[in-house]
Amino acid sequence: MEENEPQMGDTTPIRPPVPFPQRLKASRNDKEFEKFVNIFKQLHINIPFVDAILQIPSYTKFLNEIMTKKRKLVDSETIALTEECSAIIQNKLPPKLKDSGSFTVSCTIGNVEFFKALCDLGASVSLIPLTVTRQLGLKELKRTNISLQLADRSIRHPMGILENVLIKVQKFIIPVDFVVLDMEEDVNIPIILGRPFLATAGTIIDVKRGKFKFQIGENEVEFDLSKMEKYPSFTDHIYSVDICDELALEMSQVNFDDDSLELCLNGVCLQEEQVAEMTEFLQAQVPYKRRNAYEEL
């Protein structure tokens, strides 16, 4: 006996209500507004505009929104900014810092101390003037055929090379090869320490903090530009003043002498107030009357 299977009829699927139906209404209004804008742009004088408004009531609403500045005729456009523009708008740029100054170090060669030796990453060699080598008593120059191009694009030929010159920087003694150049000595910065010396000393430069350090093995020495001593540019000149100017002498007499009559007798120029004061003082004195003296006979 065959069992009769229940026949399933066609059932209509249940459609759940759309959540937030007002969003669909807003998108539909936007489409109608876009259509209205396109028609409004094609509007000419010979079109019966009043009839169009009466026939399409929604256009009246859109026109009212335009007049009350609730909508704009120009469509808004989203522009994707680059990473650089976004960083500027969001204030993600780092603050600008001032110049920390040149990186100089105090060192000693032999018995001569140099208060400022320039540590220059832009120099491929270490430079020393010929006059300084004579001052140090270093005369064993090795001949060389190299030529140097300076910052002003000029070409200079050095006198020679001083090899294995020992420089003492605090507790470190570092060997360096100097290129000797016949040039005028800079009193402020007499020698330049180039990249080979900085590499030998294990130099680490922190421009932001204004600090740099020498690191050799496990030992290191740190230098702070803000705490380094400031030395004058000229250390071999002494000035003195041994002549007193006439005007300075005259003004000193005016300032230190209080007696107006004495100043007048000394021939010092007086101001009008002092002359008036002296005149009043003389006029206020009682005139002296000389009396005749008689002797008895």
Automatic annotation (TrEMBL):
Pfam families named in the record: Asp_protease_2 (PF13650)
Coiled-coil regions, chain positions: none
Disordered, as annotated region: 1-21
Domain of life: Eukaryota
Descriptive protein name: Aspartic peptidase DDI1-type domain-containing protein
Gene name for this UniProt entry: LOC113729000
